[in-house]
Amino acid sequence: MRLDVCAWCGTWPFHGVPHSDVDGLLHLMDRAAIDGALVAPLDAVFDRDCRGPNARLARALATRGDRMAFCAMANPRYPGWQETVRIADEDWGAVAVRVIPTYHGYRTDDQSLVELAEVLAERQLPLIVTTRLLDERSHPPAFRVPPAAMEGVNALRARVPRVTLVVSWARVAEIAALDDNVAVDLSGVQGPGGFLESLLEPPGQRRVLLGTGAVLQVPECGLAKLGYHSLSRRQASDVAWGWARELFPRWGPSAG
């Protein structure tokens, strides 16, 4: 079984993105034999108010619940973000909430993110902190967005230990700077060889989840990261789906 915790639907303003709608993402999932995906609205990355993009994606996913789960976006620096979270939770049945600090103009140690994490902890919604989107070297010269700082993520983990926290799209060196109890996905990892074994040692200390970055990235590249390593059967299943089911309890896909 394969569960992708980092998938997107929507438009990217700097170049065309094939298969960017729900049907297109489903095509990519079928092609890569991915059983389920946690999907966030890409349009919300460039919208200060995430409510509209959230609602459009949630409606589009309404008939895809067997394969796709809704991951809401939130911007804690935008007035009324509490209502964004409430609607995503109570009206749209969000499985998690994703933030992208540097695109929305705040740091990972910002007090607003701490307040969001506290609200999500109360609602038992996991928080996904997105480090970047795509490689910074591919950004247009007039629009270069730096990655989020891992030091702030560690501070967030310490200040709100009750929230389920996942870091997305981080590089190996950035993951190494994180506290061991911060979960990560593989969407931003590009090597070096043997990286996955190093992330999984000692056993059980860090949870590593499958994340492809589709539709911005080719999902088969994400899956290939699992095949380059000498993982035990238990390790492979944990990364492919086991830890996703543990960390996102509202997500309903079953193994078997």
Task: Looking at this protein, list some descriptive labels.
8 strands, 10 helices, 256 residues, 8-stranded parallel sheet, alpha/beta, globular, single chain, TIM Barrel
List the helices and strands and how they pair.
Blueprint: E1 3-9, H1 22-32, E2 36-41, H2 51-60, E3 68-73, H3 81-90, E4 96-99, H4 101-104, H5 111-123, E5 127-130, H6 150-159, E6 165-168, H7 172-176, E7 183-185, H8 195-199, E8 208-209, H9 219-227, H10 233-247
Parallel strand pairs: 1-2, 2-3, 3-4, 4-5, 5-6, 6-7, 7-8
Helix pairs in contact: 3-5
Protein model, in words:
This protein has 256 residues and is of the alpha/beta class. The protein has a single domain, classed as TIM Barrel, CATH 3.20.20.140. Helices cover 36% and strands 14% of the residues. It is built from 10 helices and 8 strands. The longest helix is centred in the last third of the chain and has 15 residues. It starts with a strand and ends in a 9-residue tail after the last helix.
Question: What would you say about this model in short?
Answer:
With 256 residues, the protein is α/β, with parallel strands linked by helices. It has helices at residues 22-32, 51-60, 81-90, 101-104, 111-123, 150-159, 172-176, 195-199, 219-227, 233-247, and strands spanning 3-9, 36-41, 68-73, 96-99, 127-130, 165-168, 183-185, 208-209.
